[in-house]
Write a structure and sequence with these properties.
Number of helices: 3
Strand order of the largest sheet: 1-2-3-4-5
Mean pLDDT: 91
Order of helices and strands: EHHEEEHE
Amino acid sequence: MSDIRLLTLPDLPRANEIRQNAYPTMEDRSPKGQQLALDRLARQIDQSDLELYGLFRDEELHGVMKFYDLTMNFMGLFVPVGGLGGVAVSLLHKKRGVAREMVQFFQRHYEERGYPFTALY
């Protein structure tokens, strides 16, 4: 059974590894680049409009995603929108339903909070 939860500082090195393997051309892989990416993830955890979630199976991190609390102008009314970004799955666990479970969790998360819209950010 999978467990999806907010990531904490000890989870960040593995989360960063998953992200860099999923999007190999987007990150600097030097030691300095690795540290900058970890620092950026740590700052993102502290942001009020962004949450970093991970999918765990047997206490091992298999996938990561970012949730954004956004606002959209809909016919002159400002309404809340749940944003999903940075979905990444461990290369060893692709084709095992990890991304599907994460997206379903995202949809339920914002539906339960009463958000009328969600969007891929």
